[in-house]
Design brief:
By secondary structure, the chain is of the alpha/beta class. Helix content is about 40%, strand content about 10%. The protein has one domain (about 10-180, about 195-305): Rossmann fold. The longest helix is centred in the last third of the chain and has 24 residues, at about 280-305. Bound molecules: thiamine diphosphate.
Length: about 350
């Protein structure tokens, strides 16, 4: 496993480029009707996920909502498996049955891809509970949008995480809009991070367009969580360049607003930082970009060639079905390592 400090910034820039080019190509393939269903693009927000992933270990847990392509790619899911999932093919990371909103990759500890706003936040708390219960030093990164913070599930989850002091970083990707509703019209607070204060969870605002700021803040928090488990909250100020989904013309915002954020583009910014410091030349950048485009084109070819899921699997994985996996071993109870996670009843009785 690669230690955090060795994650090369040029490599992370290359990851951002891969994410950007993947989504541009996905948008084109959607318009060509090769991709069906919903498709939400992350373009503009790349520094958040790459910065956060650069700050954690490969065995830490990641979970997010439906704007999830970048999270899977950043976690290490292959572009082929991601594109095939968009195409609904059997070789996709969710066997072609999940589509754009339900990327999943257990091997890389990417636990979705969830379509219902805020519904994954309690699941994230469950992942963090499991970490503490087993006495591990992993951390859960739970990403969600500004639209999630007024949902009941969000509040219940934050309360439990704080009460049990669970190792989790709640990462709110505040891109200013939940579909067409601006955050000022939906949220009573002036800053989202203040939601965390209500649960006694430390929180900070981060410039989500700046890869380095995201990485350093997440690294600092994760370091403190590994020493002594606790929840933390980060409000990442970011912006999505495209509409909410492929079918949204985004007429609720002005061109000038979009242009203002484009000037602060996370890829351009990291590129400029690295160039100024003599760590990247224009030729090297062009090569990285060329490689990203080639990888994505190869992923499209892979997806096109891949088979559809067999028709008889149509109803598989919809409900738990013991009959399909009769000999599946039950997970071993970690009795030896069981930790007292819940606070003692005597201190918390009503
Ligand atoms: C419980 C629930 N209510 C409504 C919806 C419809 N819906 C889909 S996306 C969305 C907006 C969420 O915005 P945000 O959480 O800010 O995430 P972003 O799209 O900005 O990434 C809504 C209301 C849903 N999926 N789930």
């Amino acid at each position: 496993m690669q230690p955090v400090e060795q994650r090369d910034e040029v490599e992370m820039l290359s990851l951002m480029l891969l994410i950007r080019r993947f989504e541009e190509r996905a948008s084109q393939q959607y318009q060509a009707q090769k991709i069906g269903g919903f498709c939400h693009l992350y373009i503009g927000q790349e520094a958040v996920v790459t910065g956060a992933i650069a700050a954690v270990r490969d065995d830490d847990y990641v979970i997010t909502a439906y704007r999830d392509h970048a999270h899977a790619l950043a976690r290490g899911t292959s572009p082929d498996a991601c594109m095939a999932e968009l195409f609904g093919k059997e070789t996709g990371c969710s066997r072609g049955l999940g589509g754009s909103m339900h990327f999943f990759d257990k091997q890389h500890h990417m636990y979705g891809g969830h379509a219902i706003v805020a519904a994954h936040i309690p699941l994230a708390v469950g992942l963090a509970f499991a970490i503490k219960y087993r006495g591990e030093d992993r951390v859960t990164l739970c990403f969600f949008g500004d639209g999630a913070i007024n949902q009941g599930a969000f509040h219940e989850a934050l309360n439990l995480a704080a009460l049990y002091r669970l190792p989790i970083v709640f990462i709110c990707e505040n891109n200013l809009f939940a579909m067409g509703t601006s955050v000022q019209r939906s949220t009573s607070l002036r800053q989202i991070v203040d939601r965390a204060e209500g649960y006694d969870i430390p929180g900070e605002i981060v410039d989500g367009m700046n890869f380095r700021e995201v990485r350093d803040k997440v690294a600092e928090i994760v370091d403190s969580i590994r020493k002594e488990p606790h929840p933390a909250f980060l409000e990442m100020r970011t912006y999505r360049y495209r509409g909410h989904s492929m079918s949204d013309p985004a007429s609720y915002r002005t061109k000038q607003e979009l242009e203002k954020y484009r000037l602060d583009d996370p890829i351009t910014r990291l590129r400029a930082q690295l160039t100024r410091e003599g760590k990247l030349t224009n030729e090297q950048f062009d090569l990285l970009d060329k490689r990203a485009k080639e990888t994505v084109l190869a992923a499209v070819k892979f997806a096109e060639k891949s088979p559809q899921p067999p028709l008889d699997t149509l109803y598989d994985y919809t409900y738990a079905d013991g009959a399909t996996e009769p000999d599946r071993p039950r997970p071993v109870e970690p009795a030896q390592e069981r930790r007292e996670v819940a606070p003692s009843p005597s201190t918390n009785s009503p």
